[in-house]
Amino acid sequence: MTIFIQFVWLGGLLVEGVILVRSIQGKSFAKYSLFYVYIASVLVKSMFLYVVSIARPSLNVTVYWPAQFITLSLGCGVIFEISRHVFAQHVSLDRFARWTMLTTFGLIFVLVAIHAFLLPRWNLAANTADLERDLRIAQAIVLMTILFLTGYYGIEIGKNIRGMILGFGVYVGASVLSLTIRLLVGPRFSSAWQVIQSSAYFVALSIWAVALWSYEAEPAAGPPSISGGEYQILAGRTQRVLGWINEHLDRTAPR
Amino acid sequence: MIQLVFSLLVGLALLVVLYFFARRGKVSAEGSAQQLREARQTLDSLQFGLLPNDLVHRIFAREDLRYVRSAAPPQVESLFLAERRAISLAWVRRVRGAILDLMRFHRGHARLYAQLSLSTEILLAFNFAVLLMVCRLLQIALYLRGPYAAPGMVRTVAAAASRVCLISEKSLVFLKVNQMDTLKNDPSHHGASV
């Protein structure tokens, strides 16, 4: 199992390198800067942990969770990146997605702050696994909100962002499930958890490598956003029609 | 324990949503010129091809049932009722289709507005869902009790469907950006004109 994890880990480093090189070659680094900063941070973290595991293996556990917390926080930037591009031409939906992100991520960080200040025995290093699960849940909720909005309003998503969503979603989903089962089962599940985490991340990296191989601009949404009171008129009209239909259908119920 | 169950549910839900997202085909740009043209064609075929009063009256006429009862054996009557039930079910499907069209128009255009109201959108989504459910219930009722179970149903449903088509058509005109200024200056087109 250790050999498998090592293999996946090294393979992951290689794919991360390829993604970053392609981003520079294809001039897409600036387009998806938050995403590539996240990939670079994971690459640096992985190499750092690899060096630590060889030079000072006893420190491995101590440095793992703080390093994980940093990449975890940067992972929120990936969600922001996705939302920014998906709703680039939909002002209201972008506002709503940002509001959801701020609320969910903000809530998690406020809870951490409250725990840190009010509970003297609570410390971040000892509770990072819990925090990671909570943040992954927040990321999952925001991601689902974005996917629901794109599905409901029929928003087209380009190849790059589609891959970003799929890859990140697979990793977040697997993380939420494996972290929860780990908390439920206990240390017995740790080795399986490592395999699931590493494999899910490798799958995510593979999806990103394929989807982000070359830059592809997001599809145009059609006419530009219209501001003003027209929306209220449109919504009012739709509401009124619904009322009429409802009234008629009430009257037509079989007697 | 509740927290753990919630976490598991969120994880599973995300993977399910991703599965459907991955399977989702290329979304056609709602609100595009082609989409609007297709929508108009659909509405025209409903309004002028399927919903005229005389056609509806002909399909659901009680005289036909009376005639069949008086002139034909019971086997023919049951065959007649089965066919009329199929037609009435198709009728409700049309109403449902019109509501879905209206919903599609609204969603396709509302997303482009800068001042979209979240509460209004949630309310509308809820109302659409309720209406679609009512249509389903009507379909069940017709299926179980037959086409003549609800006196007056045909006229009122036809009226509702016609109105939906009419309003959707007006929405299509209204949503043309180049006509908005005209509408703004015309008091008859302000909200209540539907």
Question: What do you see in this structure?
Answer:
The complex is a heterodimer of chains A (255) and B (194). With 255 residues, chain A is an all-alpha fold. Chain A has a single domain (2-228), classed as Up-down Bundle (Rhopdopsin 7-helix transmembrane proteins). Chain A is globular and about 75 Å long. Chain A has helices at residues 2-25, 33-55, 60-86, 91-118, 128-152, 159-185, 190-211, 230-251. In chain A, 78% of the residues lie in helices and 0% in strands. The N and C termini of chain A lie far apart (68 Å). With 194 residues, chain B is mainly α. Chain B has one domain. In chain B, helix 2 (33-50) runs antiparallel to helix 5 (74-110), helix 5 (74-110) runs antiparallel to helix 6 (118-145) and helix 5 packs parallel to helix 7 (153-174). Chain B is elongated, with a radius of gyration of 22 Å. In chain B, 27% of the residues are buried.
According to CATH, what is the topology of chain A?
Answer: Rhopdopsin 7-helix transmembrane proteins
| Mean pLDDT rating of chain B | 69
For this structure, the quaternary state is heterodimer
Helical fraction of chain A equals over 70%
CATH C-level category of chain A: Mainly Alpha
**Which structural class do the helices and strands of chain A define?**
mainly alpha
CATH arch. level architecture of chain A: Up-down Bundle
Order of helices and strands of chain B: HHHHHHHH
Q: Can you count the helices of chain B?
A: 8
* Radius of gyration of chain B, in angstroms, nearest whole number: 22 Å
Number of helices of chain A: 8
Largest sheet of chain B: none
In which range does the helix fraction of chain B lie? over 70%
Question: What attributes does this structure have?
Answer:
heterodimer, A: 255 residues, mainly alpha, Rhopdopsin 7-helix transmembrane proteins, 78% helix, globular, B: 194 residues, 8 helices, disordered C terminus
